[in-house]
Amino acid sequence: MNAGVASRNPDPVSMPVDLPVRLYMRALRQYQKLLDPKRLASKDKVAVPGKEEERWRNKDEGALLFKRWGRTRPSVESATTPNPAPTAPNAQPSDLLKFLAINALELSAPASDALLKSRSSEWFQLSGHPGSLAPAGPGTVWKRRAAGDHPGHNPERDTYEALASCPHMRAAIPRYYRELEYGGECFIELQDLLHGFRDPHVMDIKMGTRTFLEDEVSNARARGDLYEKMVRLDPNAPTEAEHAARAVTKLRYMQFREQRSSSAEQGFRIEAVKLPGQPPLTDLQNVREPQQLAATVARFLGKDERARRGIAARLREIRELFERSEYFKTHEIVGSSIFIIYDDERVGAWLIDFAKTRRVPEGTQVDHRASWQQGNHEEGFLYGLDRLIDTIETAELPSEGSKAAEPDVSR
Fold first, then answer.
1. Residue 179 has pLDDT above 80, yes or no
2. What is the CA radius of gyration of the chain?
3. Which domains occur in the chain, in start order?
4. Which residue stretches belong to region Disordered (predicted)?
């Protein structure tokens, strides 16, 4: 009986992406009879998931990943292969319904509002472009292809595919599933890093001393619109010549933006912080001095020395993997982020965002720590990671009975 029920579960990968709700409803109709009290009281057992989540860590890959419903871990080569449903005795009808809803939608299409109600307090987009991410089901998200990219030029997809096959870096990134098209738009499907954490602390950190591409600033023409943006941010920033011309170049404006944050000096900037029970803190433009960064990290960690040790160890692991990766010896990693999450039980950190990752010209060598000069393609990723690790390890956490200092986030 169990094997027969499991075999009739819909295949969430092979089914068309525009049919998840219909398949879900059909699955409910097929299994309604299983919820009949007389049948449930019989000797036959129904294949349903257990209620407890299983947490696991693969020592070889070094990534914290979590399983819901006791599913087996897919390999990189078979990441899109569905796993058989587990069995668990004495499950309640509500468990079965939830299991059917999940299996009808996972790895298929963004879940409906009704089915995501239970996740509304757990899933959020911390920073980045609003609307670029959507939860696709428990455990996965869809990320929209960047504007201007196309099937022949999709750096983020290409980078995830390359790193997913890299024995070193696959442990440092979200699990990559596939590229797909839905509703006339293109997406990549990734592991939802928030999945499995309960009311977590979350921090999004943009890495590097340079977060713009060299070809973005190759045009030396001065622009009035960028001058206006600069003046709005800081009326005293333009030089006398720039005030007279009422125009600045793109390079001048981008470097001005980097210098307003901690990126230029420290090689990283804190984009956003989410603390349990509070809305995301994103107004962090002025957090750039070392003491301000340390105060923000202390607020993020609270009094949790366990989390501090776990995060620092994970970041050192990512640094070691990065340095051993052949891929990063030939690519500049511009505008990527470190995504850090912890709750009362778990700690995790991942390298994300590869829309501006580019292969460097043949014969060019990058060490990711050297200062950037036009044409050398250095972006300071490892320079920033060194300083981020030091900041986390040395930040003075509040003692018992005291509160963490509030970082200065004034405009």
1. yes
2. 24
3. 1-109 (no CATH), 121-129+156-175+194-209+267-411 (3.30.470.160), 215-260 (no CATH)
4. 71-92
